[in-house]
Amino acid sequence: MFWLGLRLGRPLTRCVLWPIVAYFLLTGQGARRASRGFLAVALGRPARLADLWRHFFYFASTILDRLYFYAGRTRALDVTVHGAELFDPILRSGRGALLLSAHFGSFDAMRAAAEQREDALSLRILMDLSHSRTLNAALRAVNPEFLEAIIDSSEADHELALRIRDAVDDGDIVGLMADRVNNVRERTVQGSLLGHPVQLPATPWLLAAVLRTPVILGLCTYEGGNRYNVHFEQLHPGGQAIGSRQRAAFVARQAQAYLDHIERHVRRNPFNWFNFYDYWTRA
Prior knowledge:
By secondary structure, the protein is an alpha/beta fold. The protein is about 45% helix and about 20% strand. A seven-stranded mixed beta sheet has the order 1-9-8-2-5-3-4, with helices on both faces. A two-stranded antiparallel sheet has the order 6-7. α3 (about 15-25) crosses α5 (about 50-70) and α4 (about 30-45) crosses α5. It is globular.
């Protein structure tokens, strides 16, 4: 697909998405069941086949567009950015911040928007390179500098924390997903999304407390066609000391605030939700 995308261009390559989406919609029983369950809650009605198709097609579209964002071929993409001014005081401070996102919409469009400011942000991405090896190899082939901006989250916990601390001290913005628990050993915090309980990783908020760093939410919704909407919103201003006795309450409060922000965007455009599994915690 990436080979075709670079040679045929986006309009022609998008035609190939139709049979691909049809294949996965027909054969992906687990993903289809997860999509139907989530959309029923988000839409407030039973999800129809057309809804499932749109959900799968949005996901496929954002995967294809990763190619163009990483290759710097964004002329055909219409990306609108809201809230970029939140980074101005962070840049003036000389220290970095945490940029939290979710498996919702296009992380790559959001990343490209952050890096294309006139005073371009130094953005480091927390990513487990042991997953999606084929896709990562394809992105690396398109953009050889791909790995330079990555902090490999598969490292030991203490080494990872030190790398994030050093990046923030150097003035980097560290981007990470905060909506999934990927490690059974990871500390978690419970919150609520769309009225259902969910477990989130506590690590981002523990880092924010220890590093006293600002936390920005970055989400980018795919609006169909070639349109993307990037939203940056402040979750935590940073700066203040948070003692060990207050951290549990701080983590719980901030994790729920993060979910509340996401819920607002999910209700507006639920087809950007890309957690294709049974997401909510069962009692």
